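Tip: read the tokens left to right.
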């Protein structure tokens, strides 16, 4: 009976144990806990006395009197018989059981002081949950999805549009990207041979970037594939990047200062170079390396965008003349002040456009100062544009690695950009760009689990992107995906300086210019109308 009561009491203590959800204890809670501890202590004392009394009743104690006819031997025989009937295992089992239950009760009594308390207050959690319930169900929220609008196209309509206009573009996209990288790297190998004995910048293998290499190429007719070629300083030189913010723009720009380094030790030991830092100009005039120096690409000791692009353009032309006999297509170069544009004409009459952009890497990061985008500067401008295109390309590759099979995230962006670029007239100064839609998608790829991008959720995710962008336009706030984004996964290669930086608002100018905000809103509504029209055209 006593053991059963003890078990029942232990179960009650465990089940009804008060669990605290805040690190603050009010006096009433402390008083109730102390009273409960006193009651449990008294109950344990009562049960212990009852248990001892039961043991005394079941076997004779040393204070019990013996009968007049019982001898000392009979007393010992009686004790042995009682012990034999009870059994040594029963006695040991009762002792271990009682000790185990006492330990459980003591642990449960001491658990409030041992447990790590919660780091938040339940009242604040309840308040936040009430605020979330008051939000509009049609808005896209982190970790959830919006309810499909009645006049928004369903998955069947979106799939039908995709098969008609974009299916052919996506089928051979990966193989075409591989071909483009192979062709450009073949040209670069020849360029490296042509410049190995000069004091001109050295060229590394190209890196694919932007829509084609991210997997959401939206066009069928004018196929343009963009690659970046990193530049390394020539022997005896170094590149020092000087960053600055240009007034009136959100992009960060920089200058590339070309500095000389001492090579006297290598010149004495190997004799394969000349130390330009400690040789006078007249000593270099008769040397074959003299005319091939990086200073011809500089303006005031800074690497010039236009001069460097024209030099690379000429170098690619010489390289193609040496390898053209190995290919069955024609390659012509298009004039450009900030990139090398190549037009490829195949025998199958398929046209292919390749744009090669030059860039200098910022330290150990994957951020580059690139030549593309600097056309707005004056002629011979030494201003280079900071670009995160390589990191964004790697982010899309990371998402594709963990996303479900036939994930719909790339398909969503392809449909939206195709409607924006091919179905709508292109204004002279467009406010809402392709990069804004891409940024909204990248934010949602972090906010929503990758399992929420299954093929059957195409319509919901497409509406989520539009809802996110609409809210950003209303609030005039769309943050850059990589700058100041603390939610990025640790294995996404972003420097700590960028991760901890102040977030960059891509819509900052909309808050200062009401006319620009009105135009951006109008452009967004036009895209929305094009999306809704897909339902009726199906």
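Filled-in amino acids:
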């Amino acid at each position: 009976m006593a053991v059963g009561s003890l078990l029942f009491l232990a179960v009650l203590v465990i089940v009804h144990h008060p669990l605290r959800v805040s690190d603050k204890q009010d006096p009433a809670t402390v008083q109730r806990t102390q009273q409960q501890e006193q009651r449990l202590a008294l109950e344990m004392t009562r049960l212990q006395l009852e248990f001892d009394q039961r043991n005394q009743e079941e076997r004779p104690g040393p204070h019990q009197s013996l009968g007049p006819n019982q001898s000392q031997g009979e007393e010992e025989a009686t004790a042995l018989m009682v012990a034999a009937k009870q059994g040594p295992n029963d006695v040991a089992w009762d002792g271990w059981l009682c000790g185990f239950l006492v330990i459980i009760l003591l642990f449960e009594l001491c658990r409030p002081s041992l447990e790590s308390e919660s780091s938040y207050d339940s009242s604040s959690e309840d308040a936040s949950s009430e605020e979330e319930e008051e939000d509009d169900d049609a808005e896209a929220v982190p970790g959830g999805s919006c309810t499909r609008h009645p006049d928004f196209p369903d998955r069947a309509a979106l799939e039908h549009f995709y098969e008609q206009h974009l299916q052919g573009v996506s089928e051979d996209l990966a193989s075409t990207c591989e071909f483009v990288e192979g062709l450009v790297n073949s040209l670069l190998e020849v360029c490296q041979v042509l410049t190995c004995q000069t004091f001109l910048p050295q060229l590394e293998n190209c890196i694919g970037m932007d829509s084609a290499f991210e997997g959401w190429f939206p066009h069928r007719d004018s196929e343009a594939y963009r690659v970046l070629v990193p530049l390394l300083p020539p022997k005896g030189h170094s590149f020092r990047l000087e960053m600055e913010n240009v007034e009136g723009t959100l992009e960060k720009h920089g200058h590339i200062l070309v500095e000389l380094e001492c090579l006297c030790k290598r010149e004495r030991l190997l004799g394969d170079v000349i130390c330009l830092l400690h040789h006078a100009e007249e000593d270099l005039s008769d040397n074959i390396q003299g005319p091939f120096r990086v200073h011809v690409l500089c303006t005031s000791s800074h690497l010039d965008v236009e001069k460097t692009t024209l030099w690379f353009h000429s170098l690619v032309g010489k390289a193609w003349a040496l390898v053209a006999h190995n290919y069955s297509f024609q390659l012509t170069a298009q004039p450009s002040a900030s990139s090398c544009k190549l037009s490829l004409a195949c025998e199958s009459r398929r046209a292919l456009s390749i744009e090669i952009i030059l860039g200098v890497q910022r330290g150990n990061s994957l951020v580059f100062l690139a030549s593309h985008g600097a056309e707005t500067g004056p002629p011979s401008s030494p201003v280079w544009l900071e670009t995160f295109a390589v990191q964004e390309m790697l982010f899309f590759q990371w998402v594709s690695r963990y996303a479900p099979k036939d994930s719909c995230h790339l398909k969503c962006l392809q449909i939206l950009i195709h409607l924006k670029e091919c179905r709508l007239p292109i204004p002279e100064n467009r406010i809402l760009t392709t990069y804004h839609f891409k940024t909204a998608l990248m934010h949602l790829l972090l906010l929503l689990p990758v399992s929420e991008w299954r093929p059957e959720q195409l319509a919901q995710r497409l509406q989520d992107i539009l809802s996110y962008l609409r809210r950003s336009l209303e609030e005039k706030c769309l943050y850059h995906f990589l700058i100041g984004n603390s939610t990025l996964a640790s294995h996404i290669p972003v420097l700590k300086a960028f991760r901890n930086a102040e977030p960059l608002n891509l819509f900052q100018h909309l808050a200062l210019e009401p006319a620009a905000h009105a135009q951006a809103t109008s452009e967004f509504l036009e895209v929305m109308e094009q999306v809704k029209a897909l339902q009726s055209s199906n």
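The first helix runs from residue 2 to 15. The chain has 19 helices and twelve strands.
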